[in-house]
Amino acid sequence: MDTDSLHGRLALVTGGGRGIGAAIARHLASRGAKVIVTGRSQAELAEVAAAIDGVAVVADLADRAATDAMIATVRGLGRVDVLVNNAGIAESAPLADTDDAMWDRIMELNATAPFRLTRAFVPAMVAAGWGRVVTIASNAGLTGYGYTAAYCAAKHAAVGMTRALAVDLGRTGVTINAVCPGWVGTRMAEEAIARIAAKTGRDTAAATAALTGMSPQKRLIEPAEVAHAVAMLCSHDARGIHGQAIVLDGGQVLK
Ligand code: NAP
Questions:
Q1: How many domains, in total, are found in the chain?
Q2: Tens of pLDDT, residues 114-125
Q3: Choice from 12, 13, 20 to test ligand 1 binding pocket (greatest atom count within 8 A of CB)
Q4: What is the per-residue pLDDT across 208-255, written as a single tens digit (0 to 9) for each?
Q5: Are residues 106 and 215 located together in one domain of the fold?
Q6: Do 25 and 58 belong together in one domain?
Q7: Does residue 229 belong to any structural domain of this protein?
Q8: Using an 8 Å Cβ cutoff, are 11 and 31 in contact?
Q9: CA 28, 33, 38: angle at the middle one, nearest 5?
Q10: Cα dist from 252 to 212, 214, 249, whole Å
Q11: For helices 42-51 and 19-30, what crossing angle results, to 10°?
Q12: Which residue range forms the structural domain that includes residue 198?
């Protein structure tokens, strides 16, 4: 038995059109899963879906009605066996500038959407006796960083949801885990580097060094490394890994 195989499984990857989500979609497809990618950017989603013989479903997950419509569309495609809550946004601001709209935006996509999707898709996994939920949180879900109260709160919420639901799902054959990367080389990191450069006057190399310097490995994590961890959690032999927040940050956050 190939315990890594996802042949015959249907996976939903949110934010699957680029960055970490695209790497996860490609990796799960390489293990044999049929993969549905969702997000807002149709062209990016279509490109990933075409490359992996998957399906693209456009949806703004910050909009609950649009999310519900996406859930209905996906249910029409089959039973989701693997849910990867990956879509997320990061914004930073000091406390006084973290207004309600920014707080709500970050919480809605990074915490509420994963909760609502998990609530929507887990019951069918439980009925089938097998399922995998993996939420891409962050090491900001386990510790605090400057100027990121909303992002850290949302990622802590995602980790907290994971830990709590692991208790509820213990005897169902469904596992739920979070993956907590440090800085990963994607558009999100590029935007952070641009913000640092704009605010501090540093050049791009120095702004990049501000991020890589946080890690003992002095580098950004690659999206493929996160995808590898997600695929591992989806394997048969990972069935005992449950309710965990797996840190993937080159040793930055030592628990
Ligand atoms: P990214 O390249 O900016 O990708 C973010 C993804 O989320 C995109 O596919 C985007 O698609 C999707 N998304 C954003 N807003 C959305 C919305 N309203 N509705 C639906 N989808 C939406 O960033 P990434 O680095 O791959 O981030 C993926 C996840 O990893 C996020 O949860 C992030 O917090 C987490 N993470 C990233 C890092 C890092 O350093 N990059 C570190 C730790 C954790 P559309 O724009 O097309 O909607």
A1: 2
A2: 999 999 999 999
A3: 20
A4: 999 999 999 999 999 999 999 999 999 999 999 999 999 999 999 875
A5: no
A6: yes
A7: yes
A8: no
A9: 70
A10: 10, 6, 6
A11: 20
A12: 186-220
